[in-house]
């Protein structure tokens, strides 16, 4: 994939919206369905204005019935459409989990290869807005556990602008995680939206001393930590996994083989996390390349509490990333 | 010859050839299921096996009113529908054996028969899980301005699930052309309908979603045909959903792991007196649409065809283990 040559500054929200607009323009079979995506403008204003532009047939408000409308999206995909289904936030996705895990993920296999389910299911997620336990889940690992799904995580503005368009070229069900904490952040996005046609893990910053492997909300945090580490002479490489299933083992192994050290960073709680899997792959594929044990900085094993200071303490912060990375590199 | 058969106050024009075909379909399902039970005890078929014995008039009657292009989604008790849809009995049997000559290369088994070329979308084993998908398929047809309808079968157990209610609301809200068929055989595994539904007249539930509904004696083939033709007509005219409850009974256990502790043998015997196959045969004999001799010949033909299906499955082959992870993903770009 060639690096986009020209870029402009957009908010993460605007980048997501432009990708939706492109998707709707590019293909008549595409439609967006979800709770409050139309008249309300999207719970986070991501689809604001699209109803006026594309009409109610293509921007469909649906009732509160996650299992029903996700299932309907799967059915429409089976029958020739290209639905983009929005689950307002990941926290409500368990009501549709049966449809995702038992239908979307299994039909290709169970039918002996006859049925494709080209549905894209987007959900916003992330922690940091003091919404307490029921509205602060990081369930990327839950979805990444399921064979048959492809699971994408949008950790940068570039991906906010482009990832959906690639996902829509997929014949298989794709889950996309978007991060509400980033919606207002501005960042660089490429103006060329045509050349992107494959998604692998991406090296967001190169370095030779340690690989910081992360995704989603961890990407900018890790990049900030890497910038700070650079000031004290530690050159960290930051890998944005982007695809949580299937994992891009090659990029991980290549980086660790170069830096000989790895720190894994994510918001989801540590046990049985994406980092658990990445760590295991490193042991299996390049153990002898390691100069230090692989360490993880993940979410604390606790339902997320409401007070800001406790909420912040639940997930890895930039300072911790710097401290732990230093510790790994300096063997102390 | 277009003979009108009249029972009580119902009339249904069925010509001789159609009458014979319908009888043949019901007899074929019955024989196929009995053979499957036998093969299960011989451990040729494994896993869960749910038989349709007693309920044949429902699948045969409903599907008589459908067109081949209509989408069909069923439960795990779907051999009958699959056979009527024209899936090859040998290919179905091979699937139940787990052989790669099966309709899903053996990966689904008895509960997961699929044939996309015949618009046969399962074989779905999560109770009520296919209802939302069925609504989505109908929605896609509406969006693409296709003329076909979607038909979705489920048991009365499914009617208690949330997905039933979500699907009904969506179907009505979006006004999509779908025929919901409840095969009310009075038991969800071992739970009788009176223990699971506060309202046991299931068709009344449709009113809450502004969906037209009807119910019919599911042991009476002609009544089912009449009711489903009426339903399909309404759907075609209005583009809206319709809910048809077919009151029926399964003569055999829920699956092969069922000691049937929850119902009296006497009750089963009473229902067996209403077996749809002898009832329809009798009717055809009375109207001289078939002869005893012709029925005997049908039986013979069916036995032979089922034997061929079993032979086909027996001769089938096991998929090599190195192909295990096929069909998890398509050739793709991520
Ligand atoms: C969601 C779900 N819960 C439980 C089961 C286990 N189960 C399989 S069949 C069945 C009974 C379903 O009864 P009904 O819907 O009336 O259909 P029938 O088997 O009588 O045709 C149950 C409880 C299941 N497969 N799916």
Automatic annotation (TrEMBL), chain B:
MF annotations from Gene Ontology: pyruvate dehydrogenase (acetyl-transferring) activity
CDD domains: TPP_E1_PDC_ADC_BCADC
InterPro entries per record: DH_E1, PDH_E1_Alpha_Subunit, Pyrv_DH_E1_asu_subgrp-y, THDP-binding
Catalytic activity: N(6)-[(R)-lipoyl]-L-lysyl-[protein] + pyruvate + H(+) = N(6)-[(R)-S(8)-acetyldihydrolipoyl]-L-lysyl-[protein] + CO2
GO BP: pyruvate decarboxylation to acetyl-CoA
Organism taxonomic ancestry: Bacteria, Pseudomonadati, Bacteroidota, Cytophagia, Cytophagales
Keyword list, A-Z: Oxidoreductase, Pyruvate, Thiamine pyrophosphate
Pfam families in alphabetical order: E1_dh
Annotated protein name in UniProt: Pyruvate dehydrogenase E1 component subunit alpha
Cofactors, names only: thiamine diphosphate
Residues in coiled coil: none
Catalytic activity, EC: 1.2.4.1
Summary of subunit composition and partner proteins: Heterodimer of an alpha and a beta chain.
Protein role: The pyruvate dehydrogenase complex catalyzes the overall conversion of pyruvate to acetyl-CoA and CO(2).
